[in-house]
Every structure is written in structure tokens, then in C-alpha cells.
Amino acid sequence: MFELNLIKDKAKARQRRRIIVLSVISIVFLAALCSVFVGLMTAQEKTRTDLQQATAQKYDKEFSTLKGRLDNEYPKAQDRKKAMKLAWDEDVKLLNERVFLSPVLTQIAQYKPARGQFWYSEISVTLMSTPTTGGAQPASPLLANRELSGTGVVQIVDSDIVTQQALEAVGRQISENPDVTRAVGVPTYELTFDEQAGGRLAGSAGRYARFVVRARRDFGGGGTER
Amino acid sequence: MATDINKGDTNDWTAGIIAIGAALVLGAAAPIGIYFGLYMPQTKQLEMWTLNAQANEIKLHAEQEKEGRMQKMQGESDRVRGEIEKVEARFSAADENLIHQIEGIAQRHKVELPQDKRNFKDVMLVKNMESPTFMPQKLRAEKIYIECSATYNDFGRFMAELENLPNATLIPGNFVAAGNSGAGKTHTFRVEFFVVQKRDLGSIGINVPK
């Protein structure tokens, strides 16, 4: 009886050991499994970190390269655009505001007093180098103000006053052409009653008197005329 | 005797339970240690680099937008340059070709240029190289000087044609028309012209003074 119990006890003890060993092995296995799982997650994070680091460094490098290039080129592009625009504006302004003398010559030749002889002795157009009162002088002689001056002789058929009025009418007729006023301004005619120029011409009726014509174009506010 | 045997059973279980507990503690320590020791710092690093990458990407995008604006500006500049080229097709140099052209026009309109000064290399047409005229944006013009004799009407036609040349822009400067005693209807004319020149479009905007 005692021997039988002893055998039973040994079997129980063996079973207990088996249970304990199996339990420990299971726990260690599960722990290892968890460790492997966490390790894999860590490795995955490491890969993602490396990837993000590489991306960040790539962006940083691209940024540095691009910034270096743009710091050099962007101001130049701005300057070029601004300069192109100014050059274009200048060309357009020049072509729009350039002066033509041929309309002035045409108009001067076209109009004269209705009665009596009339001719010009000299006509000149002078570039004005100094600014005129009330108008801003452009920086270039290409668009500078111009002054017309001329002298001539007119036959006084009726009276001095009538002749003066006829000359003023000539000035008005000439200034009706906008090309003339744009080029030299509004011409004004004036009898001078110069004794030396006056007097009678041989074989002709009436007196002759000198006249002067003057016009000045004041360039201001885009080319307004006086 | 039976009590001893039972006591031995209890001791076995106690040791076993302790072993199991130790296994549990040690086994849990490994993944927990890996988690806190490796995984957590890694996530912090990932977060840091993610933020870093985002910040860099934003900076890069800003620069790329700037580059886009620059390319747009360059495109606009090129377009304006094309327009300037079209406008300045009417500009030319005061060169020998232009002088010959002027002489041809004078001949056609019976405008007489002085015989002894007709050659361009002499002084009939003084090409004033010493004082080129600059507009504020470096638009240049050269001055030429014409002295001639003609009737008023012929000279008027001559002037009109010069001022409307398709291949050159001549802007009159000082002008004098004087009667010529003893020459009948012929007068003496002296006129200077500014010949507007083409720009060097490639140099526009380069080395602009600040």
C-alpha cells in the first residue's frame, strides 16, 4: 500500500513539474513573441524615420539650391521686367509725342492775308534747352519744347489795324491744325512797323511792313500747348 | 509520514508558481523594455523628422512659387521685348545707308545739296558721334545735319518724306529757312535731325544701377 502511494506521488510530482515547465516555456514564448512584435514595429518606425529624414534633407537641399539660384536671378528678372516696361513706355511716348515739322511748313505756306502781298523772310524752329514756366521740361531734346519764330513782310492795303487783324486771322487758321500746336504751339503774328522795312516798293500800291511770328510749345502734362 | 509528503507537494507548487511569476515578469520586461527603450524614441525622432520635412516642404513650395513668379516675369519681359522689337523696327542707325537714302529723296524732290559737301564722309551730313542723345531709359539718337537749297514746296515734300520714313525715325531739331537773295524762289534750309537708334535689347535690365 505504501509503495503504491509512493508511485502515485512520483507521478503527481512529475506532472507538476511538467505543468510548471510548460507554463514557463509558454510565458517565455509569448514574451519573445511580444518582443519580436515590438521590435518589428520599432524597425518599421526606424525605416519611416529614415525615409522622413531623407525627405527632409532632400527638401532642404532642393530649397537651398533653389534659394541660392533665386536670390541671384529673381532681382535680375524684376529689374529686367521693370526696365523692359520703362523702355516700352519710353518708345511709345516718343512715337506718340514726337514732333513733325512738315505740317508746320505746310500750314505756314497755306494761309496768308486775304488782301495784299505777303511773304516770309526767315522761319526758324529752335529747340528750347531750358524749362519754361508752367511746364515740365522732358529730359531729352527729342521731346523738348520747340519755339517757332519768323519774320516776313506784309503789304498794308487797308490800314494797320485791318492788316494786324488779317495776320491774327492767319495765326488762328494755322493753329486750327493740331499737329502745328503740338509741334510749336499757337503762332501769334504781330506787325512791327519797322521804319527801314516800311515804305513803298517801286511800282506797287500801299505800304509794306515787317511782321514777326512767334509760337512756343510748353511741354507739360503729356504735351499740352500754350 | 503523510504530512511530510503533503508538505513536499506544497513546496513544489510554491517554487513552480515563483518560477512562473518570474517568467511572467522577465518575459513582460523584454517587450516593455523594447517599447520604451527603442520604439518610443524612434517615434519621437519620426515625429521630429516629419515636422522637419513638412517645414522644409513649405519653404521649398514658397521658393517654387517664387520661381513660378520669376518665370512669369521672364515671360512678360520676353513678350514686352518682342513688342519693343516691333516698335523699334522703325528705328535705325545714322549710317551710310540712311545718308544715301536721304540723298536719293533729296534728288527726287529737287532739293539741292551743296556739291562740295555731298559726300557723307565730308561734312554735308554731320553725324554727331560725340554727343549721342540719351533718353532716360538709354534710348539713343544720333544727330545729323542737313543743309540744302530748294523751293519751299520741294523742301516741304522732302521734309515730309524724311519724317515718315518707314525704316528710320527722324525727329527734327533746330530748323532755319532763310530767303536766298538772288536765287529766286529757292531758299536755303538748315535742319538737324535726331535719328533714333535701336536699343541693345539684350542689355536691358542687366546691371541696372540701384
Topology:
The complex is a heterodimer of chains A (226) and B (210).
Chain A: H1 2-97, H2 102-110, E1 118-127, E2 146-156, H3 160-175, H4 178-184, E3 188-191, E4 207-216
Antiparallel strand pairs in A: 1-2, 2-4, 3-4
Chain B: H1 2-87, H2 96-108, E1 128-134, E2 140-151, H3 152-163, E3 170-179, E4 186-196
Antiparallel strand pairs in B: 1-2, 2-4, 3-4
Structural features, described:
The complex is a heterodimer of chains A (226) and B (210). Chain A is an alpha+beta fold. Chain A folds into two domains: 1-97; 102-216, Threonyl-tRNA Synthetase, Chain A, domain 2 (2-Layer Sandwich), CATH 3.30.980. Chain A is 57% helix and 15% strand. Chain A has helices at 2-97, 102-110, 160-175, 178-184; strands at 118-127, 146-156, 188-191, 207-216. Chain A has a four-stranded antiparallel beta sheet, covered by helices on one side. The termini of chain A are far apart. Chain B is α+β, with helices and mostly antiparallel strands. Chain B has two domains: 1-89; 91-199, Ribosomal protein S6/Translation elongation factor EF1B (Alpha-Beta Plaits), CATH 3.30.70. Helices cover 53% and strands 19% of the residues of chain B. Chain B contains three helices and four strands, in the order ααββαββ. In chain B, a hairpin with a 5-residue loop joins strand 1 (128-134) and strand 2. At the A-B interface, helix 1, helix 2 and strand 1 of A face helix 1, helix 3, strand 3 and strand 4 of B. Strand 1 of chain A pairs antiparallel with strand 3 of chain B.
